[in-house]
Design a protein that fits this description.
The complex is a heterodimer.
Chain A: H1 8-33, H2 36-41, H3 53-62, H4 64-94, H5 100-111, H6 117-130, H7 136-160, H8 165-172, H9 177-188, H10 190-206, H11 209-214, H12 223-229, H13 231-234, H14 238-258, H15 260-271
Helix pairs in contact in A: 1-14, 3-14, 4-5, 4-7, 4-10, 5-7, 7-10, 8-9, 10-15, 14-15
Chain B: H1 7-34, H2 51-57, H3 60-92, H4 98-106, H5 113-135, H6 151-175, H7 180-189, H8 193-204, H9 206-221, H10 225-230, H11 242-252, H12 256-283
Classes of the chains: A mainly alpha, B mainly alpha.
Chain lengths: 273, 288
């Protein structure tokens, strides 16, 4: 097969286009490292001196470590519990789709995808505050429950492609359904679990609406919510605001940088079959 | 699969059903229920029949939010899909720095919309007007976010900037399913670049086009964080989306019942648009 030449037109187009993506990030980094005088002189230039004290002030002002810890706990435990529970529910459905009851449940969960959050938003706030779970634990819980609709859709399609013969053999060997799932099926689901992990991590870390309506105490605030709540306090201290934005974005940027392949394949597997 | 332990399936699923009903279906039903009342979200309430629905059709603010949201969603969906398809085709060709360029174009995927919105808010408010003044272009010398006629463009821009990453990944996956020999055969037959795009590339990424169009449209119809970060619905109410209206009216305006009715209409609108899209787009798909 002949080796085709480099497509210079496409290369130059993409290199110029990538500036559109990198420019806002460049702005964020240089503003976060300048003092207000330097910003007033020139926004675009590189900082003359690195003002790391911006980060220290932003950390104190927004109580960064508190909200970072909240976001971290919410994302890690939310994603882990989502994978453990949602996969199990989907397994029970996938292996019983010939029964009317389970088939109905499949459509019950999946049809919820078309229900906009806006219709639930007002009542759920009343409900969670009446139950005393308008805090980060309630938030984790809701992410797990709301994730069911989409994740069942993903998992069921995947489980159907796993040959059932292994499970039948295990049952003949005396395993019950519970052991079959955890010992045999769950390990086989690793590729789709990793897709759910990627999609849920992006959602839980970056979500703004659910924390906004649900959380009532300052101590429970997530990193995203803090950026919103502190808008009025940042005012024209753009150096502090941008330092704060940068710190809120960095964890996922780091994960993306070291595990880009994993993130991209997770997105692909989670969206198309 | 027969097993004495088949009852365990029920243990696996019943808690999830109960919880999903309690925290998803039940609040949705409550929303529908309250839409027929005059509840403020607290205190006593009475049934008012269809009054909220009738008032909504006469409500200029609601109508404006629907028009804004449709305009935003339609334009953003088209732009995202066109740009993403071009990006995917370019990234899929033989280019230099392919790995690096892919990493850059996929990066917005992991960034939060709210924060991206705040960063662009700064760019639109300060940097672009400064640049506009410097080069003497009148339109650019003031912030577009402060202009009721133009603010929506800023929101579309940020939405497209952020969403292209996801859609490009999907198109790229689609392009990689197309066998190379199809193009080789087309070359031998002397088909032009455009014909190859029209009858090979586009025909075969059609299923991915359907996925992207439906998902993008659905997400953009629910637009919220973009608007909060860029304009907060302003100037005035020029860029108020339906989600923002329901949020603002429901939590700050004591319009619990009224905005519940709005949410019910919104639900039907999204449902109908999704069904039409899926039907229309799937008819155009070609199976090889």
């Amino acid at each position: 097969m002949q080796k085709s030449k480099v497509n210079w037109g496409a290369s130059i187009f993409l290199i110029l286009g990538s500036a559109m993506i990198l420019f806002p990030l460049y702005i964020t980094i240089v503003i976060a490292l300048k003092n207000p005088q330097e910003i007033a002189q020139s926004v675009l230039s590189l900082p003359k001196k690195l003002h790391f004290e911006n980060f220290i002030m932003a950390i104190k002002m927004t109580r960064f470590f508190r909200s970072f810890t909240n976001s971290f706990i919410i994302t890690v435990s939310g994603v882990a519990l989502t994978i453990l529970t949602n996969s199990m529910v989907a397994y029970a459905i996938a292996r019983n789709m010939h029964k009317k009851f389970f088939k109905f449940l499949y459509f019950y969960f999946v049809s919820a995808l078309f229900i906009p959050f806006a219709i639930i938003m007002l009542p759920i706030v009343k409900q969670t505050s009446a139950m005393g779970i308008d805090n980060k634990w309630g938030l984790i819980f809701l992410y797990i429950v709301y994730g069911l609709a989409f994740n069942i859709f993903l998992y069921v399609a995947y489980i159907k492609s796993i040959p059932i013969s292994l499970e039948e053999a295990a049952i003949l060997d005396g395993c019950n359904i519970w052991q079959v799932f955890w010992k045999i099926v769950f390990p086989l689901m690793a590729p789709i679990n990793s897709a759910v992990m990627v999609l849920s991590t992006l959602w839980l870390w970056n979500d703004f609406l659910l924390p906004l309506v649900l959380l009532s105490k300052r101590d429970d605030m997530t990193l995203q919510l803090v950026q919103y709540v502190f808008q009025s306090q940042f005012r024209t201290d753009y150096n502090l605001a941008f330092a704060s934005y940068l710190m809120a974005m960095t964890p996922l940027i780091i994960i993306y940088t070291v595990a880009q392949k994993w993130v991209v394949s997770g997105i692909t597997k989670g969206s198309i079959k | 699969m027969k097993s004495k332990s088949s009852y365990i399936y029920y243990y696996m699923i019943i808690p999830a059903v109960v919880l999903f009903f309690t925290f998803h279906t039940y609040p949705a039903l409550q929303g529908i229920f309250y839409s027929f009342t005059n509840s403020k979200g607290y205190g006593t309430y009475n049934f008012v029949g269809l009054k909220n629905y009738i008032n909504l059709f006469k409500d200029g603010r609601a109508l404006h939010a629907y028009i804004f949201t449709f305009k935003f969603a339609l334009i953003s969906t088209i732009l995202v899909n066109v740009i993403s398809l071009i990006l995917a085709i370019a990234l899929n060709s033989r280019i230099i720095f392919q790995k690096l360029l892919k990493s850059i174009f996929f990066l917005p995927l992991v960034l939060s919309i709210l924060i991206i919105g705040y960063i662009f808010n700064y760019i639109f408010t300060y940097l672009i007007p400064d640049a506009g003044k410097a080069i003497g272009i009148e339109v650019l010398s003031k912030s577009i976010l402060g202009n009721p006629e133009l603010a929506w463009i800023g929101i579309v821009f940020v939405a497209v900037w952020q969403a292209c990453a996801f859609n490009t990944i999907i198109y790229l996956a689609g392009l990689q399913t197309i066998p190379v020999d199809l193009y080789e055969a087309a070359n031998i037959d002397g088909a032009s670049g455009w014909l190859q795009f029209r009858y090979i590339t586009f025909a075969l990424v059609a299923p991915f086009f359907t996925v992207n169009m439906v998902l993008a449209m659905k997400n953009f119809l629910m637009v919220f964080a973009h608007v909060v970060a860029l304009t907060n619905g302003g100037p005035g109410r020029a860029t108020e989306s339906i989600s923002l209206l329901i949020y603002d009216g429901g939590f700050n305006g004591a319009e619990f019942a009224y905005q519940s009715a709005n949410a019910v209409i919104y639900f039907f609108v999204i449902l109908i648009i999704s069904i039409i899209q899926i039907n229309f787009l799937q008819k155009r798909e070609i199976n090889l």
